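Notes from hallway chat w/ T.B., transcribed later so I don't forget. T.B. wanted the structure written out for a chain they're using in a teaching module, and asked if we could keep both sequence and structure tokens in one place. Agreed to drop them here.
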Amino acid sequence: MEQLIRRSDGSLWSCGCSSFFVSHTINRWRLPIAVQCRIGSLESTDLALLDTGAEWSVIGGDLVEILKDELNSPTDSFSISTRMGTIRGALHRIQISLLAEQNCGKDLTVESSVLISQDWKGPVVLGYRGFLERIRFALDPGVSPDEQRFYFGTVE
């Protein structure tokens, strides 16, 4: 059965959902909330830090090199302050897909503005401006630890 959120009139509020992970560790990074996503046209998926407090989404490290052919000219360049220090990068447009689990609706692909920085050594960060502000989303902690659900949909 499809696990989606409906409005009181019966229309869909979300188009897909998936599990999310609490306090998940990737390499040396602890992600308070981690969700599955696909960056650009990559076939592989990534667990990304879902951070409503991050101003921008950030991609760095090896992914920058892999995605370089997909990146258009930057729209802006600037620095941001992180808990690991200041990083400099350029804002690019790239597609980010949130991945729905089987029988849980459909994936959602968003044309996103993302800070691309070779300096960033941390995980993929899904931040507010340029990404989360363009979607509808909800986190449901569930009743037991294995029932966490991340709902997502388009903003109409």
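Follow-up for T.B.: Helices lie at 62-67. Might be a good example for the class.
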